[in-house]
Amino acid sequence: MTNNPSRREINRQRRSLTEQQRRISGSLASRYLPNLTPRLPKGAKVAIYLDDFGELPTQPLLKWCQRMGYKAYMPVINTLGKNNKHIRFAPIEHTKLINIPTVRHPFGMKETKHRHLLKADELDLIICPLVAADEQGNRMGMGGGFYDTTLAKSYQYSSSKNHRKHPLRVGWCYEFQVVDQLKTQPWDVPLNALITPEKIRWFS
Question: How far apart are alpha carbons 89 and 73 in whole angstroms?
C-alpha cells in the first residue's frame, strides 16, 4: 500500500535550509524554465505564488516572467465566498515579490488585496505549490483542495481531443519532495511537468 509522506516532516526539511541554500536551489531550478517557453504563447499569463513556508524560492519565476515578457499573477482564495474553493489570480505589479503589499489569510498564506482577478482557464501556465510530488506527476498539496478544485475543469478539457491543454500545470519544489509514488484520489489533478534544482520531469 502506498503511503504519502508526512507534510510535517517535509515542511521541517524545507524550513531547515539556510537562506543561502534556498537561494542557490532557486537559481539552479531556474535553469530549466526555458524548457517551458516552446509551450507558451507570446505574452503568456503565468501564475506563480509567494514562497512563505520554506518552499523553493519563487522570485526566480517572477524574474523569468519579466525577462520573457510574460504577465505574472498570484493566487487569491475565497473571492467567491467562504466555502468556494476556486482560486482566482491577481496581477503582480512589482519586480520583487517581497515588495507586494499582502495580508495574511486565515489559512496562513500571504495574498494580495488586488481585485482585478482572472480565472484559471484564462491563464497559460500555473506554477503549483506542493508538499510532495511523485514520478508519475501526481501532486500532494497542503490538504485544502484549492488547486485541485480550481484546475478540475481545465483538466477535464485537456483530456478531450477537442480542447488544447490549458493551462499548463507545473510543479516547483526541492528534489527531496519527490517520491516514487503518492496515494491519489479521483479528484486529484496531475502535473504536466515538475521542476527541481536537479532536473525537469515531463508527464504524459
Answer: 6
CA distance 65 to 46: 8
The DSSP-derived string for 109-160 is -EE------B-GGG-SEEEE--SEEETTS-EE-SSS-HHHHHHHHHHHHHTS
Q: At what angle do helices 19-30 and 59-68 cross, to 10 degrees?
A: 30
Cα separation, 59 vs 63, in Å, equals: 6
Kindly report, residue by residue over 7-19, the tens digit of the pLDDT: 999 999 999 999 9
Query: Residues 25-74: pLDDT tens digits?
Result: 999 999 999 999 999 999 999 999 999 889 999 999 999 999 999 999 99
DSSP state of 86: -
How far apart CA 60 and CA 28 sit, in angstroms, is 10
Picking from 69, 12, 17, 20, the residue whose alpha carbon sits closest to that of residue 43 is 69
Residue 200 bridge partners (DSSP): 195
Q: What is the pTM of this model?
A: 0.87
